[in-house]
Design brief:
heterotrimer; A alpha/beta; B alpha+beta; C alpha/beta; B: alpha+beta; Heat Shock Protein 90; C: alpha/beta; Transcription Regulator spoIIAA; five-stranded mixed sheet; 4 helices; 5 strands; globular; Serine/threonine-protein kinase RsbT (chain B); transferase (chain B); kinase (chain B); kinase activity (chain B)
C-alpha cells in the first residue's frame, strides 16, 4: 500500500503542483516584491520534483531515511536564500506548509472511499512535511546567524580605525559600547599601529562611547597600561561632563591616566610632550 | 565537546617547560589561534607548569585540540601527585603565595584563558584544566 | 649552560634577549647584570626584549628586580621593544611592571637614558654650585 501512495502522488504530480501554486498565490504571505511568480513556480516545481523522486525510492514512514537527503539539501538551499532575501519566518514556513494542503487534497480525492487508509496515509504525509518544516526553520535561523556573524565581524573591523594624526602621534576614536572583546580588538590595533609607526603618543577618544561604568573604566585602564608597557604614552580624550560625573560617583580611580576633555586639547598636550608648537603665521610681515 | 587530537608529556625539570611551551605553540598555530591568544595561553601554561614543578616536584600535562559549538580550542590538563592545595579560594586570590613568588600564578592564569577548573585533594594531588578557544 | 651577553656602550649596559628564557637563565642574567653595573659603574641599563614572545610572572619579576637593584646602584633601567601580544598578556595577568621604564625601540630607549642621565648630571652640578 505504501508504494501505492508514492506512485499515486508521482502520477498526480501536475495536479499537486497546480494546487500548491494556487494555495501560495492566494495566501496573503505571498511576496511578489521579493520573487516573481515565475521564479516561485520554478522553485516550487524543483521542490515537488525532488520530493516525489525521494518518495519513489524512499520510505514514507522513515523521515530520517538517507533517501531524503537530496530533498533536505534542496530545501536548505531554498530556505537559506529566502533568509538572505528578507523573507520572514512565517512566509518561509507557509511556503512549505501550503504543500501539505495540496498533498492532502490529492490524497483525499484518491482515497475518498477508504477513510481508514486515508487517515493512515495522511498522517504519514503530514509527518514528512512537518519534518521538512523543521529543517526549513533550522536552516532559516542558521542563514540569519551567518548574516549576524558577518556583520559582527564587519563592525569590529570598521569600528576601530587607527588614525595617524601627526608624526609620532596616533589616535583611535571609539564609537559604541566598549566590552571586553571590543577592548581586545582596540588594544591589538592600537599597539600594532604604535609599533608600525613607532609613535610615542596614542590618543584614545571616547566621545562616541555612550556610558562609562567601572567595567569600561577597567578596560580603558588596561589599554593605557599595555600602551605604557610598550613604551608609549596614552591619553584619553573626549570625556563628556556626564562621564566625568559617573566616574566620580562610582569612585573610579583614573588618577594614573592623562585625561582631556576634547581631542583638540589632547593633541595640544601631545604636541607639548613632543616639544612641538602650532603658530599662526604673522600676515603683517608679508605686507612689508 | 569533541577531542580532535591529543598529546601528553611529563614536566619533571625546568627544561621540560621550554619543550612544552614549544609543543603548545605548534598546536596553537595548527588550529589558527591568533597571536595574542597564543601568547595568553602559553603564558598561562607557563605559570601552571612552573607551579607544578615548584610545589609538586613535577607532573604531567595533556594537550588536546577540542571542538565545541563550531569552534576549535586547546584544552590543557595539568595533573600532579603533589601535596595538594588546602584552601583553593585563598590560592585563587591575587597576591597570595606560599612561596616567594608574586602570587599571580593561579589567578593570573585564570584571567588569561576562556575556562579554568581546579580540583585538589590534600595529600593526593592537584588537577587543573584550562581551555582557550581559538577566538576566545 | 647558556649565557646572555652583556654589552657595554659608553655609560650604558645593553642586553638583547634573543632566546626563550627559562628560569635559571633569567636568574643568572639578573645576577650577571647587577655585577656588571657595579663593576662598570654604568649609569643606565637597556634590555631589549623584542625577540621575547613570552613574559610570565617569573620573568616579569626578574625584570622588576633588575630595575630595582640597578636603581640602588644608581643606574636607570629601560625595557625596550615589548611585543604588543606580550604587553596585552602582562596587563591581563595583572603585572603592569610599575616602576620599570619602557621605550618602543633601542633608539628611543637610548634617548630616554641619555635624557635621564643629563638631568641627574645637571642636578649634581647645581648641587656643587650651591656648595661653593
Amino acid at each position: 500500500m505504501k508504494l501505492d501512495t508514492a506512485k499515486l502522488l508521482q502520477k498526480r504530480k501536475k495536479q499537486i503542483l497546480e494546487l500548491w501554486m494556487k494555495n501560495q498565490l492566494v495566501d496573503f504571505s505571498l511576496r511578489e516584491d521579493l520573487m516573481s511568480n515565475e521564479e516561485l513556480t520554478v522553485q516550487s516545481e524543483e521542490l515537488v520534483n525532488i520530493l516525489l523522486q525521494s518518495l519513489n525510492n524512499g520510505n514514507l514512514e522513515d523521515v530520517q531515511s538517507a533517501s531524503f537527503e537530496p530533498l533536505y539539501e534542496v530545501l536548505e538551499t531554498i530556505s537559506r536564500s529566502r533568509a538572505k532575501m528578507g523573507y520572514s519566518p512565517r512566509e518561509t514556513g507557509t511556503f512549505v506548509f501550503s504543500l501539505k494542503d495540496a498533498l492532502l487534497n490529492v490524497l483525499q480525492q484518491e482515497f475518498k472511499n477508504d477513510p481508514v487508509l486515508l487517515l493512515e496515509e495522511s498522517l504519514k504525509v503530514s509527518k514528512l512535511i512537518d519534518s521538512l518544516g523543521i529543517v526549513t526553520f533550522e536552516t532559516f535561523i542558521k542563514g540569519r546567524e551567518e548574516v549576524i556573524l558577518r556583520q559582527t565581524d564587519e563592525i569590529a573591523e570598521i569600528s576601530t580605525p587607527v588614525i595617524r594624526v601627526w608624526d609620532g602621534i596616533v589616535a583611535l576614536p571609539i564609537i559604541g559600547t566598549l566590552d571586553s572583546s571590543r577592548t581586545q580588538v582596540v588594544m591589538e590595533n592600537l599597539l600594532q599601529e604604535i609599533v608600525a609607526t613607532s609613535s610615542s603618543i596614542a590618543i584614545l577618544d571616547i566621545s562616541g562611547v555612550p556610558a562609562v561604568d567601572s567595567l569600561v573604566a577597567q578596560h580603558l585602564i588596561k589599554t593605557v597600561s599595555a600602551t605604557r608597557l610598550m613604551g608609549a604614552e596614552c591619553i584619553i580624550s573626549g570625556i563628556r561632563p556626564e562621564i566625568a560625573q559617573t566616574v566620580v560617583h562610582l569612585g573610579i580611580d583614573l588618577s594614573g591616566i592623562v585625561t582631556k576633555a576634547t581631542l583638540a586639547s589632547a593633541l595640544r598636550y601631545a604636541f607639548s610632550l613632543l616639544q612641538l608648537e602650532v603658530r599662526k603665521l604673522n600676515l603683517k610681515t608679508n605686507q612689508l | 565537546m569533541i577531542v580532535l587530537s591529543s598529546d601528553s608529556m611529563p614536566i619533571m625539570k625546568e627544561l621540560d617547560m621550554v619543550v612544552f611551551r614549544n609543543r603548545l605553540k605548534e598546536f596553537a598555530v595548527k588550529i589558527g589561534m591568533s597571536l595574542v591568544n597564543q601568547t595568553k595561553l602559553i603564558t598561562a601554561a607557563s605559570e601552571l607548569s612552573r607551579n607544578m614543578l615548584r610545589y609538586a616536584g613535577g607532573g604531567n600535562v595533556l594537550i588536546e585540540i577540542v571542538n565545541a559549538q563550531r569552534q576549535n580550542g586547546l584544552r590543557l590538563t595539568f595533573s600532579d601527585t603533589g601535596p595538594g592545595i588546602p584552601d583553593i579560594d585563598k590560592a585563587m586570590k591575587d597576591g597570595f603565595s606560599t612561596g616567594k613568588s608574586l602570587g599571580l600564578g593561579l589567578p593570573g592564569a585564570k584571567r588569561l584563558v576562556s575556562d579554568f577548573d581546579i580540583k585538589s585533594t590534600v595529600g593526593k594531588g592537584t588537577t587543573i584544566t584550562i581551555i582557550k578557544w581559538k577566538n576566545g | 649552560m647558556d649565557k646572555i651577553p652583556i654589552l657595554k656602550i659608553g655609560h650604558f649596559l645593553m642586553v638583547a634577549i634573543q632566546v626563550d628564557l627559562y628560569d635559571r637563565l633569567a636568574l643568572s642574567l639578573e645576577s650577571d647584570l647587577v655585577q656588571a653595573v657595579s663593576k662598570t659603574g654604568a649609569k643606565g641599563v637597556l634590555i631589549d626584549i623584542s625577540s621575547v614572545s613570552i613574559v610570565d610572572s617569573f620573568m616579569g619579576r626578574i625584570l622588576g628586580n633588575i630595575a630595582g637593584m640597578s636603581k640602588v646602584l644608581d643606574a636607570e633601567t629601560v625595557i625596550v621593544g615589548m611585543q604588543p601580544a606580550v604587553a596585552i598578556t602582562l596587563v591581563e595577568l595583572g603585572l603592569p611592571l610599575k616602576g620599570v621604564q619602557t621605550a618602543l625601540n633601542v633608539e628611543k630607549g637610548m634617548e630616554l637614558l641619555q635624557k635621564k642621565i643629563q638631568f641627574t648630571e645637571e642636578e649634581e652640578i647645581d648641587d656643587d654650585s650651591t656648595l661653593q
